[in-house]
Specification:
The complex is a heterodimer. Chain A is an all-alpha fold. Chain A is built from 14 helices and no strands. Chain A starts with a helix and ends in a 7-residue tail after the last helix. Chain B has 17 helices and five strands. Helices cover 69% and strands 3% of the residues of chain B. Among the domains of chain B are: 84 residues, no CATH class; 235 residues, MetI-like fold, CATH 1.10.3720.10. Classes of the chains: A mainly alpha, B mainly alpha. Chains A and B meet through helix 1, helix 2, helix 7, helix 8 and helix 13 of A and helix 10, helix 11, helix 14 and helix 16 of B.
Chain lengths: 325, 469
């Protein structure tokens, strides 16, 4: 098991190198640092001097890949590629384009993101499984048919409308919770309720429908027929046999997104003005802060790869038939 | 004379239309392709939603025929100058909607502006009042009395015309079907109305009449009112929503068109060749998949923005700039979304290459290229079709989110995402400016719901797993 995880982690290295090359290419080769400087300084009063100054202050004034001026190892290390891209591997994120320490910002913004993402995930799971069980129990009846149609209708509504509608109804019309904002400690609860609720509701459509197919896949299997043949009540079959087996794909599907929860949700956080990593990313994109976007791309990829490894581990835990070699 | 303009996306749209028409003609003669499609359209829900989808596609196609009008007042020197504005056939059809621009916000069916303004009276005194609209409700005269009566009368008129029109369509349908089946027109009409036909013509008829009613209402009412209100710069919201149809459809279809050849080629080759080719393909798609998609799109679009800002001379009109950005967005979305299909195809061709008929073909000395094109490709097409149809609605929804983040289509382009983005901040105003949001919601919901229902039917009809059950 341990050997397997180590091997998977080693496999991840070429993938991370590939990601680094893609981002490096996108950010420094497609457009030169000169273009970036021009964009940040504004189009009109750009002098060569100002560009050089901007580049020097942000560390973009070095050669891209090979530094002919420096001697020895400096030929490779004293370049933009080494300074900006290779350092990411050591989780040394450097400074954003407006001079803030990215690592510090990320550590500050992780908790608010999690405060929304974790309750939304758990509650969502509970609600979706309940609905899916209900539809699977009444399969083939009107409850099932209309349940599926309702799911498709819910799926067809853009996530933004859930947020806007929720904010308008609960916060503006009924004044139950604040429209947006965030606070530390216990006071956070009243700010968290609405985003979590909306997160759950917007996921019901696709979630319950997917889980329903998992349940229905299991109901056709032989062990279910055996269980029924013994004379077990349908509800017992559902809870004791089908649910436990259908949980395998559900759990593994959840595990893969667990690490990505750190990144938060772009939409929810920006609509509710929550100081998490999602709104951090959106702000960076809007302010065209390339340093932060680069870091978030790297971080997101690392978390995704961790998620993939976790899934394999989770398979062995929830499904004893699977053995990792 | 007008000067036709073919934008990049227009060309691709026409290519797509040709491909679809070609496929339909081809599939009609192949029973193994025609049967599942018949099964799709035999469902009532799928038949109804396909009518709605067709209406959207028609709007989008009309909006894809672009041209520039000649400027008035030249021609004496023999050289004709053209207006910078690029128009489409749809613009011509809805003519007044485009040109009747108010000053700023006004509610649906309003006769006065949303905001108060200081107006100077004839005697020189100034008053704060809601100024009357320039176009909306103008025919009612000053004060806008009898508005409710006027609207009701127009609604009833539209309803009457719809009933008349639908009876004609029913009669035509019955005549055509009766001729094919060899029964009387009267009996056929009865069959359609009671739903006893092979294909669900009654549902088609019902959906069609709903659409016709909406169109007639829009034609009659939008001529004299702003049916869905006006936006911040006074543009008619109905016009905006109609123009956004093309953007939504393009994102949903061109993205697929762009990524399809790539995904099919890589997926099949990886599964068929195995070995190091497989490793390379797997490496490429795992790498691309690992990058969070929104961030990859954001990074690419940011870079495009920098490039466009530094090379303004490449784009003659705003429409051309919007168009290139839309195309680029499709390509980027395609790059992020081909991986799923590629993985499916790889698995499928891994399985197929061990199949007996392929082994037999290999024994006869059939070349690899021929095996792939003649034996593997036709047998994975159902996977391709299902993925394409299922992806469509997700892409339409993604456009709105990306435009909100600021990395979607050009901010000046008509799109539902931009409409939501523009109207979002106005929710805080008192009274609320809700009509832009509601229109974007309704149009998007109709398209995505129809697409979802239709794609479900396609999946059920083509997926061998559901057939066995």
């Amino acid at each position: 098991m341990f050997a397997y995880i180590v091997r998977r982690a080693i496999y991840a290295i070429p993938i991370l190198i590939g990601i680094n090359i893609i981002t490096f290419y996108l950010f420094f080769v497609v457009n030169s640092p000169d273009d970036m400087a021009r964009l940040h300084l504004g189009m009109k009063h750009v002098t060569g001097e100002a560009i050089q100054k901007w580049k020097a202050s942000h560390g973009y004034d070095k050669p891209l890949l090979l530094n002919g001026d420096a001697g020895g190892l400096g030929r490779v290390t004293d370049t933009i590629f080494f300074e900006k891209s290779v350092r990411l591997f050591a989780f040394d994120f450097g400074f954003s384009d407006d001079g803030r320490d990215i690592s510090y910002d990320i550590s500050q913004r992780m908790l608010p993101s999690l405060a929304i993402a974790i309750p939304a995930l758990l509650l969502g799971l509970l609600v979706n499984i309940t609905f899916a069980l209900l539809m699977a129990f009444f399969r083939g009846t009107y409850i099932d048919t209309w349940g599926v149609i309702l799911c498709v209708v819910l799926m067809s509504v853009s996530g933004m409308f859930y947020i806007i509608g929720g904010q308008f109804l609960l916060a503006k019309l009924f004044r139950l919770v604040p429209i947006s904002g965030f606070a530390g400690g216990i006071a956070a609860i009243k700010f968290v309720v609405l985003p979590v609720l909306i997160g759950v509701v917007s996921g019901i459509g696709s979630g319950s429908r997917l889980y329903r197919t998992f349940f229905l896949e299991e109901t056709g299997k032989d062990y279910v027929r055996t269980a029924r043949a013994k004379g077990l009540a349908e509800s017992l079959v559902l809870f004791r046999h089908i649910l436990r087996n259908a949980l395998i794909p559900i759990v593994t599907g959840v595990v893969v997104i667990l690490p990505l929860l750190f990144l938060g949700s772009l939409l929810t956080e920006s609509f509710f003005a929550i100081p998490g990593l999602g709104s951090y990313t959106i702000d960076a994109i809007r302010n065209q802060d390339f340093a932060i976007v680069r870091v978030m791309v790297f971080l997101g990829s690392v978390l995704y790869i961790i998620g993939l490894i976790l899934v394999d581990v989770a398979y062995t835990v929830v499904d004893p038939r699977v053995r990792l070699a | 004379m007008i000067k036709p303009v073919i934008l990049w996306t227009d060309a691709l749209v026409f290519l797509l239309v040709l491909v679809v028409i070609g496929f339909i003609l081809y599939a009609r003669r192949k029973p193994h392709l025609a049967t599942p499609w018949k099964r799709v359209f035999a469902g009532r829900i799928a038949a109804g939603s396909s009518v709605v989808l067709l209406a959207f596609v028609l709007t989008g196609l009309l909006d894809s025929l672009h041209f520039r009008l000649p400027l008035a007042g030249n021609g004496s020197e023999g050289e004709v100058h053209y207006a910078v504005e690029v128009l489409s056939v749809l613009d011509m059809l809805v003519g007044p909607l485009r040109t009747r621009v108010e000053k700023t916000y006004s509610a649906p069916f309003a006769t006065h502006l949303y905001a108060k303004e200081t107006v100077e009276r004839e005697d020189g005194s100034q008053v704060r009042m809601y100024p009357p609209l320039q176009f909306g409700g103008r025919h009612l005269g000053a004060g806008g009395r009898h508005k409710a009566e006027d609207i009701l009368r127009r609604c009833l008129r539209a309803l009457a015309v719809t009933l008349l029109g639908m009876s004609t369509v029913l009669w035509l349908m019955a005549v055509l079907l009766a001729r094919r089946r060899g029964s009387t027109v009267r009996a056929m009409a009865g069959c359609i109305l009671t739903g006893r036909t092979g294909l669900p013509w009654r549902t088609v008829l019902a959906t069609l009449s709903m659409l016709l009613l909406l169109v007639l209402l829009a034609v009659d009412l939008a001529g004299v009112y702003h049916v869905l209100g006006t936006n911040k710069v006074g543009q008619d919201v109905l016009y905006q929503s109609l123009k956004s149809v093309r953007t939504g459809l393009l994102i949903g279809t061109l993205t697929t068109l762009v990524m399809l050849p790539f995904a099919i080629f890589m997926g099949i080759v990886a599964g068929y060749a195995r070995g190091w080719i497989d490793d390379v393909v797997q490496y490429v798609y795992t790498t691309l998949n690992s990058i969070p998609h929104v961030l990859l799109i954001a990074a690419a679009i940011l870079m495009l923005q920098v490039y466009m800002a530094n090379h303004p001379e490449l784009f003659e009109t705003t429409v051309e700039r919007e168009d290139i950005r839309l195309l680029f967005l499709c390509i980027i979305l395609g790059i992020t979304s081909w991986t799923g299909l590629c993985r499916l195809l790889r698995g499928e061709s891994l399985k197929l290459r061990e199949a007996e008929y392929i082994q037999a073909a290999a024994c006869f000395g059939v070349s690899h290229i021929r095996i792939i094109t003649r034996h593997i490709l036709p047998n994975v097409m159902h996977v391709v079709l299902i993925t394409v149809v299922l992806d469509f609605s997700g892409l339409v929804l993604a456009e709105a989110v990306l435009s909100y983040v600021g990395v979607g289509v050009d901010p000046t382009m008509n799109s539902w995402g931009n409409m939501i983005n523009g109207a979002r901040l106005e929710m805080a105003r008192e009274p609320v400016v809700w009509w832009s949001l509601l229109s974007a919601f309704l149009f998007m919901f109709a398209l995505v719901l129809a697409a979802n229902l239709f794609s479900d039917a396609v999946r059920d009809a083509f997926d061998p797993r559901t057939l066995e059950r």
